[in-house]
Amino acid sequence: MFVLFSCLVATALITPLALKTFSPYLWMDLLYCRNLLSIFLTYVWRRRRRPLFLVLDRFLEQAAAHPNKTLVVFEKQRYTYTDADRISSKTANALRAQPGYKAGDTVALFMGNEPAFMFTWLALTKLGSPVSFLNHNIRSKSLLHCFQCCKATVLIAASGLGLTPRKLFLPQSLREKCAVINGSNWWCWHNPVQSPHNLADAESSLQCHDTMIT
Amino acid sequence: MTVKTWAIAFIRQKSAYILNCKRYFDVFLISELKDAVEDVLPYLVEQGITVLLMNEHCDTPGIESFSDKVELAADSPPPQSLRSNVTLKSPAVYIYTSGTTGNAAAAQTAVLTPWFVLAVTCFIAGLPKAAVVNQNRLLTVLAVMSSYGVTADDVVYLNLPLYHTAGFFIGFIGSIETGEVMLNVHLILDRTIKTRR
């Protein structure tokens, strides 16, 4: 009896030490497995919910739970969940009033990285429309191909990507080699006219620029 | 000094100008999407497509301004009945491959591929291909960010394009699930440029 008892005590003392030496992350792993299991169960539970629980419902749930929490920070603007909900509802209502669109139609989005992208997506999801994300770098033939193959009936485009020198965090070495054409005006960090050996070419290119734009 | 030109995006109308200036600049960033839409506008008008521009006013016939309508619209949530026909299998999002992937793959396998196969793939490759993501997949995506241990106190810095899988799914959908703040920035190009040069 005494031998059995002493064995048990020794095991109880040694086990934590052995675990700490040979598998120090066991406890963290177990906790992580528990988290994974709970995430999986949440997913299964959501799939079985009726009426259907979709990503939009999760957004509305979050918006109801933390209305004043920041969702997106873009440049100097902050958008809370309430803002996102409000703007997307406004966009959805504006779209419903739009002739040529009815709820459920596929819509193509042609926008850069900006909050309006997300808000428009939320709006279209609220209307039950599939959304097609067009790459904002594609042009002419590819753009048309992308637009056609999703059978979209509406195209929502941003007017520009809004790139300015401040928003592009390029290293100094690259700035001199970079030019941005932004609609009717263009800018660059490095002025080509200042390089003397290319003055004539630069002038001709600038004239070309004027004719192209106007 | 030889100057390599890498044009990130070409607008057909301005390509002559760009070609003229390419000796001064290595990189051109063209940030006007309206021009790109105007380029394909005749086809869109022909098919009766509604084109909306996120702007207060727009002079181009065939393109309607949309921001002013959004400003005037009511902010009441649209009725749930509008999305009553959405199921778990209905398409939620169409996401496109970059289009260059087809070309790169064709270039890599060009040694092994017979010429007639290559001739066919030349027509197919190069144009972006759509991937359809249904609502069920989107629901799965909700779990991604939280399974990495991201919590509501975190801030996610997103400089990936939102039109692509990683940027939209992990960045935006993930941040809806975990409730973290998303810091959205314009595309930062320096790393891409460095690897290309």
Number of beta strands of chain B: 8
The major sheet of chain B is characterized as:
2 strands, parallel
- Give the overall form of chain B: globular
Give average pLDDT of chain A, whole number. Answer: 80
* Element-by-element helix/strand order of chain A: HHHEEHEHEHEHEEH
Structure, described:
- The complex is a heterodimer of chains A (214) and B (197).
- Chain A has a three-stranded parallel sheet with strand order 4-3-5, covered by helices on one side. A two-stranded antiparallel sheet of chain A has the order 1-2.
- Chain A has 214 residues and is α/β, with parallel strands linked by helices.
- In chain A, helix 4 (81-96) crosses helix 5.
- Chain A contains eight helices and seven strands.
- In chain A, 52% of the residues lie in helices and 14% in strands.
- Chain B is α/β, with parallel strands linked by helices.
- Chain B is built from eight helices and eight strands.
- Chain B has helices spanning 15-21, 33-46, 67-72, 100-108, 115-124, 135-147, 165-178, 190-196; strands at residues 6-7, 27-30, 50-54, 63-65, 91-96, 130-134, 155-158, 181-184.
- In chain B, the strands form four sheets. Chain B has a two-stranded parallel ribbon. A two-stranded parallel sheet of chain B has the order 3-4.
- In chain B, helix 7 links the parallel strand 7 and strand 8.
- In chain B, helix 6 (135-147) packs across helix 7 (165-178).
- Chain B is globular and about 50 Å long.
- The two termini of chain B are 14 Å apart.
- The model of chain B is unreliable at 1-16, 101-124 and 188-197 (pLDDT under 50).
- At the A-B interface, helix 2, helix 3, strand 1, helix 4 and helix 5 of A face helix 1, strand 2, helix 2, strand 3 and helix 3 of B.
